[in-house]
Design brief:
The protein is an alpha/beta fold. The chain has 4 domains: 66 residues, 434 Repressor (Amino-terminal Domain); 169 residues, no CATH class; 64 residues, no CATH class; 74 residues, no CATH class. The chain contains 18 helices and 11 strands. A 7-stranded mixed β-sheet has the order 2-1-7-3-6-5-4. Strands 8-9 form a two-stranded antiparallel ribbon. The protein has a two-stranded antiparallel ribbon with strand order 10-11. Helix 12 runs parallel beside helix 14. The C terminus is likely disordered.
């Protein structure tokens, strides 16, 4: 049998998470994860194993293996949504919109695409305004939970304007939602936030199975969060089930509501960057002397949360001005190999025509027909035009070995 720490580290790396990210998702301290992975702690508590399995979104088989390696029973454990330690920053409007979309009845859509069509205002707006719609007054009251003492989390799901409506046919209206966007845009983090709110405020059951067929309790509302193409028979068999998929591109399934997640707006990205920097430099403060550099950093990094997190780590050794200089000379420099490969995977979802459109846009040719690129979060609105994200442009231009299309972007990578 594999050691618990080795198995935990394998699952964490496979999920593309740092120890800090897993700590946030699982509500377990970084020190506890570090001690487990290096073998200093060999007998974790059953609750710790459950939280780690939830944070990693393990299927039933992997969950049982992790329990057994930790010396715990391999029986089925109750599944609850991981509760991130750090409050979501910059995605409050999107969290409200997605929560309302899942709770609201059939016949409307919020800030996204229904059956392949993009509603006005969606598609990765650079100003972060495309996903702000979030339900009717009745919906806002229902999301806020029981009367009395609404806290900040309840407020986030209760203060958004009415949604746009769509009356076209749909096989499973509003029950299958796909959050799309470029790698690093925070799709999983948003799903975690909304699942946690629905579980805590409305008592929904939350399942975190990426592949296995889950056991659904038909006596309560249930949310299944997955990064795999779901089986529509689940929705047909369980009327109270909703499914949220996190993906680089739409699944194309009937009745799918696509929820495009664009870059953070500059002010939200700056708030997130400072929050992350304070983890490594608690005494750091924005000042007039570094304000321009900080603003330049979030713009160069496209407001992508994952890129901002990696850049924040460099604040231990670089000033904002020095880091900005490095970014402008090589935008991929302060990011990780994982983010670099993830961006290439986003590019690999494009067909030949879409790749050609992207390459022309990199050469500053404006295209109105950028829907597929916008839904994938590869481009964003800049006034009346679209522009390619800086990191996407860098990934296209960065030479790599292996099969590629024009611009040098690899199309195949190891699993």
């Amino acid at each position: 049998m594999r050691e618990f720490g080795e198995l935990l580290r394998t699952h964490r790396i496979h999920a593309g998470l740092t120890q800090q990210q897993l700590a946030d998702f699982a509500m377990v301290s970084v020190r506890a994860i570090r001690d487990l992975e290096c073998g200093r702690t060999r007998s974790p508590r059953a609750e710790t194993v459950r939280l780690l399995a939830d944070g990693l979104r393990l299927d039933e088989g992997s969950r049982a293996d992790l329990q057994q390696a930790g010396g715990r029973t391999s029986g089925r454990m109750p599944v609850a949504p991981p509760a991130p330690m750090m409050a979501i920053v910059g995605r409050e409007a999107e969290a409200a919109a997605l929560g309302a979309l899942l709770v609201e009845g059939a016949g409307s859509s919020v800030g996204g695409v229904e059956e392949g069509r993009c509603l006005p205002g969606s598609g990765g707006s650079g100003e972060g305004q495309g996903l702000a719609g979030s339900g009717s007054v009745a919906t806002r009251q229902r999301l806020a939970g029981p009367a009395g003492g609404a806290g900040p989390a309840e407020h986030r799901l209760a203060t958004a304007p009415a949604p746009r409506t769509h009356t076209g046919p749909s096989r499973v209206p509003r029950r299958l939602v796909t959050i799309t966007g470029v790698s690093g845009s925070g799709k999983t983090r948003l799903a975690l936030e909304v699942a946690g709110e629905l579980h805590l405020r409305r008592g929904w059951s939350v399942l975190w199975y990426p592949a296995a067929r889950p056991s659904v309790d038909d006596d309560q509302d249930t949310l299944l969060v997955t990064d795999h193409r779901p089986d529509l028979r689940l929705l047909d068999a369980h009327p109270r089930l909703r499914v949220v998929v996190t993906a680089l591109a739409p699944t194309g399934l009937p009745g799918e509501h696509v929820f495009p997640l664009g870059p953070l707006a500059d002010d939200a990205a700056l708030r997130l960057l400072l929050t992350l920097v304070h983890r490594v430099r608690p005494g750091f403060r924005p000042e007039p002397s570094n304000q321009a550099a900080l603003t330049g950093l979030v713009r160069e990094l496209d407001g992508l949360p994952s890129a901002l997190e990696f850049a924040a780590g460099w604040f231990m050794v670089y000033s904002p001005q020095h880091l900005l200089e490095r970014l402008r000379s090589n935008p991929m420099d302060p990011t990780s190999a994982h983010l670099r490969d993830s961006l290439r995977r986003s590019l690999s979802t494009l067909d030949e025509q879409q790749r050609a459109t992207l390459e022309r846009m990199i050469d500053h040719e404006c295209h109105d027909d950028a829907h597929a690129l916008s839904v994938r979060g590869l481009v964003r609105r800049a006034g009346p035009r679209y522009e390619v994200l800086n990191l996407v442009r860098a990934a296209v231009r960065e030479p790599v070995s292996g099969p590629h299309f024009a611009g040098g972007v690899a199309l195949t990578w190891p699993c």
